Amino acid sequence: MLEELERERAADEDREMRYELARAIEHVNRFAVLDPEESLEFVDELLELEKVDGPTAYKIANLRPQDRDELRAIYAQERFTLSGDELDDILAVVAKYT
């Protein structure tokens, strides 16, 4: 989608991109690791795990924690804690998509 927008804007030489749009496209191109389909698969696989809800799955997919401490930080405000096995299960899914 962003590639189409960039091509469309490039084709119209008289039309300049707004600063915010240009920065957003630059950010996405720099930091996007997965394509949209892979991202959805990643989130779906996280949702299959017991203690991962929708918002948390998207947060994990965006941040891609690399260790237990980073993952615990995502769950810091929850009313429950995850066991070591639960953390490892989530990190195993993250490792598949990193």
Order of helices and strands: HHHHHH
Structural classification: mainly alpha
Total individual domains: 2
Overall pLDDT: 87
The stretches of 5 or more residues where confidence is low (pLDDT under 50) are none
Write the CATH architecture name of the largest domain. Orthogonal Bundle
Beta-sheet strand percentage?
Answer: under 5%
Q: What's the end-to-end separation, in Å?
A: 23 Å
CATH class category name of the largest domain: Mainly Alpha
Characterization of this structure:
By secondary structure, this protein is mainly α. It has 2 domains: 30 residues, no CATH class; 61 residues, Orthogonal Bundle (DNA polymerase, domain 1), CATH 1.10.150. It is built from 6 helices and no strands. Helix 3 packs across helix 4. The longest helix is centred in the first third of the chain and has 13 residues. It is elongated, with a radius of gyration of 18 Å. The two termini are 23 Å apart.
Could you list some keywords that capture this structure?
mainly alpha, DNA polymerase, domain 1, 2 domains, 6 helices
Task: Indicate the topology.
Elements: H1 2-11, H2 19-31, H3 36-47, H4 54-63, H5 68-74, H6 84-96
Helix pairs in contact: 3-4
Summarize the structure.
The protein has 98 residues and is mainly alpha-helical.
